[in-house]
Amino acid sequence: MSEISLLQSALLLGLYVALAGSYGLVYTIARIQDAINLYRLSFVLYGLHGLTAIAIVAWTPLHIGWKGLIVASSAAFLVIP
Could you tell me the sign of the dihedral formed by the alpha carbons of 58, 17, 78, 42, in that order? Predict the structure, then answer.
């Protein structure tokens, strides 16, 4: 893995985690306050999270097991709430 691909992978994985946390936080606040706009925003964040997962699977040199974990985690994030 070159330095550039390592940096790209790290940045994508950081974005992946940040979007997952943002989705969970906004979704929780939307449910507590019964705010439909925040509820919609949470699914926009989940969509961006999914796009980031696709980018990780398609463009990073991670091992197939790690890519499988990314896909499984993304599916679990949607099912859990």
Answer: negative
Lookup: tokens for 24 = 């969970």
pLDDT digits (tens, 9 = 90+) for 32-41: 999 999 999 9
Compute CA distances 58 → 52, 64, 80, whole Å. Answer: 10, 11, 25
What global pTM score does this model have? 0.89
Closest CA to 80 of 46, 54, 51, 57: 46
Tell me the C-alpha distance between 69 and 81, whole Å. 19
In a 13 Å sphere around the CA of 2, the CA atoms on its Cβ side amount to 3
